[in-house]
Design a protein that fits this description.
mainly alpha; two-stranded antiparallel sheet; 15 helices; 2 strands
């Protein structure tokens, strides 16, 4: 039996397990190369190849499964969904990012805005959408989400993906590549965000552009900078985490934990040609 045939059979038995194994290998190779070139403190933009590993790992796994790579990538063409989903995703992320500034304005606390130029915001958004973090969604939502929720609830699936997503960032956190909060807060933030993105993915029947644009919006810097005193609660937990958790909880209460959709339907597995287990 050839090595490739063995790998294909193992991938068919556990597609998500195969994806995670490929992801670990790819991520390890990329981060090793980055450490070799830049040392233990590499620049943020140098981490862009690391952001490609979930996408690349999903593509390799789809190929091993002998599923349709073109159909899997076809999720990127699914842009014709309701504009309200784009607005909902972007709106949630922008309000969350500036939640402390919004509270400050309501309380009459001093806020400086914008904290950066509009050009800087647009540049960072474009880089995240087309070159970096948003491309991860081909792996997280585009591969893992539809497969895991064939067996588990959409809420459990979103939490599991959130945990994988958070811990996948550990090498970047250790290298200081990016602006990360305390790790325990970061895990809560990513898991809550994963629930929100899972809700968008399921309700748009797998419209990855909605999810990717929302992901890019979540990585934007705050528009305002609070220069006055905020309530003590924000010294314990950041405002964006409070808002993300509240939104995720409301989504579960409104749409239900099983599918995160009001009609109880789930998107099909993109590109699947055979019935595969997890």
């Amino acid at each position: 039996m050839s090595v490739l045939k063995t790998l294909r059979e193992r991938a068919r038995r556990t597609p998500v397990g195969a994806f995670l194994a490929v992801l670990i290998v790819n991520s390890s190779l990329v981060v090793t190369a980055l450490y070799a070139v830049f040392g233990a403190d590499f620049p943020t933009l140098a981490a862009i190849p690391y952001a490609w590993t979930p996408m690349a790992s999903a593509g390799i796994t789809v190929w091993l499964l002998n599923d349709g790579v073109r159909d899997w990538l076809g999720q990127l063409r699914n842009v014709r969904t309701g504009i309200h989903w784009y607005l909902a995703g972007i709106g949630i992320m922008l309000v969350a990012t500036d939640f402390e500034s919004i509270v400050a304005v309501l309380l009459g606390v001093d806020v400086v805005a914008p904290a950066a130029s509009i050009g800087q915001y647009l540049f960072f958004f474009a880089v995240t959408l087309f070159l970096a973090g948003a491309l991860e969604e081909l792996g997280w939502r585009g591969f893992m989400q539809p497969r895991l929720q064939q067996r588990f609830s959409a809420l459990t699936t979103s939490v599991v993906i959130g945990l994988v997503w958070a811990f996948w960032h550990v090498p970047l956190i250790l290298a200081g590549a990016g602006d990360f909060t305390a790790f325990h807060e970061y895990v809560v933030y990513v898991v809550a965000t994963s629930v929100i993105l899972g809700w968008l993915y399921n309700n748009t029947r797998g419209a990855l552009p909605v999810v990717m644009i929302t992901h890019a919006a979540s990585n934007m810097a705050a528009f305002g900078e609070v220069t006055g005193e905020l309530p003590a609660i924000f010294d314990i937990v950041s405002g964006n985490i409070i808002f993300y958790v509240a939104c995720a909880a409301l989504i579960v209460l409104y749409a239900g934990w099983k599918t995160l959709t009001k009609d109880g339907t789930l998107p099909d597995i993109p590109g699947q040609r055979t019935e595969n287990p997890l």
